[in-house]
Specification:
The chain has 360 residues and is of the alpha/beta class. It has helices at residues 5-19, 56-62, 91-97, 117-124, 135-141, 143-151, 186-196, 206-212, 276-286, 298-307; strands at residues 33-37, 42-47, 74-77, 102-105, 128-130, 155-162, 167-169, 201-205, 228-232, 251-255, 265-269, 291-294, 312-317, 326-327, 334-341, 344-350.
Length: 360
């Protein structure tokens, strides 16, 4: 490059920043940001705003008032420009036609129709292409998208609430479940609903559905979509009077039994003779579900941890103590962040640090 890394990283960070504005609006496409720089000055920027709409590169180039400057500019893009006709024309072709001499790419696109083809198209046209620039940051931006394409399953987020002494519930018998145990505060409840709008689906198991009768909707946050509701109820023990059967939003129920469809509710019969989780996650993958929150009970959570079928854990920790009851799961992971919510907090862990992308 003709200028220091810290200068170039500033522009890629800006591209990452604006890419995030497409969160929950562009799936199943990735979030992408692009910045056009001329003589150390941003002259155009854009991001992928809505699924099916113009891509980031198109919006960034369109924002440049003096198109003659493109022939002396560098464009920073968080993800490899596409090389195929989808809902929009190839962005790599647009860059070539715009005669932009240098392109800085954050990370290659894992999608089979792109996967290096966009970079090669630009190189063949004589464009200088800098690859894998701030790759880890760009992977982090679209970790759901990359997990979906690399592992052929959704990005799995485990979520639960626990006390300071590590309990997620009191002991409640099946004959007398009582009211759901409240561990955190009202601000945490708002935060829970805010995090839901960013994910594609949310799942509970039979016990949680019966004990807590959850809605799994976004009620405490006014703007955003409801995720697909998913219920794992193999033996059909959850009553149709439960909120999950109210038909208010799309719901998928995985079971071992046949059942006629209901309003906004689809029943998927899983094969008893095959492994459960590959079937369930494979079906969600076919539905283009890139992220899944699991708000199951300790049995489901512990099983997913044992199987290594999780990517992130979000723990809402209250300020109280139970001293006995249902223990929260133990798991290996790296703490990423801790946000305080008055007298409660949200602690986020990841199963793997993003430090060796070649192994993914």
């Amino acid at each position: 490059m003709n200028y220091p890394f810290d200068v170039a990283s500033k522009y890629m960070m800006r591209a990452i920043e604006i890419a995030r504005l497409g969160m929950s609006r562009v799936a199943p496409n990735p979030m992408v940001g692009a910045v056009v720089v001329h003589q150390d000055k941003i002259i155009g920027e854009g991001f992928h705003q809505v699924y099916g709409g113009p891509h980031a590169e198109v919006n960034a180039i369109a924002a440049v008032k003096n198109r003659d400057l493109l022939r002396e500019s560098t464009i920073y893009v968080t993800l490899e420009p596409c090389a195929h006709y989808g809902k929009t024309p190839p962005c790599a072709d647009l860059i070539v036609k715009s005669q932009i001499p240098r392109v800085v790419v954050g990370i290659k696109d894992p999608f089979a129709k792109v996967k290096g083809k966009g970079i090669q198209m630009m190189k063949d046209a004589g464009i200088e292409v800098i690859e894998s620039f701030m790759e880890n940051r760009c992977y982090e931006l679209n970790r759901r998208f990359f997990t979906f394409h690399h592992h052929k399953r959704p990005y799995i987020i485990l979520k639960w609430a626990q006390t300071l002494d590590g309990y997620m519930d009191i002991e409640r018998t099946e004959e007398n479940f009582g009211q759901p145990t409240w561990i955190t505060n009202e601000l945490s409840k708002v935060a829970v609903h805010k995090t839901r709008i960013d994910e594609d689906a949310i799942m509970v198991g039979t016990q949680t559905a019966v004990k807590d009768n959850p809605s799994l909707t976004v009620r405490e946050w006014t703007k955003g979509r409801d995720p697909l509701r998913v219920l794992l109820d193999l033996n059909r023990r959850v009553s149709k009077s439960q909120k999950l059967f109210d038909g208010s939003i799309p719901t998928v129920i995985y079971t071992h039994q046949d059942h006629a469809p209901m309003k906004n509710t689809e029943f998927i019969r899983l094969d008893k003779n095959k492994e459960l989780w590959p079937q369930l996650l494979g079906d969600l993958h076919e539905r283009n579900i890139q992220s899944l929150i699991v708000e199951g009970g300790p049995t489901t959570l512990k099983l997913l941890i044992e199987l290594g079928l999780w990517d992130e854990a979000r723990i809402f920790q209250g300020h109280g103590f139970f001293q006995s009851g249902v223990r929260a799961p133990e798991f290996p992971g790296k703490m990423i962040s801790r946000d305080y919510l008055d007298d409660s907090s949200l602690i986020v862990f990841r199963r793997e640090a993003i430090d060796n992308l070649e192994s993914l």
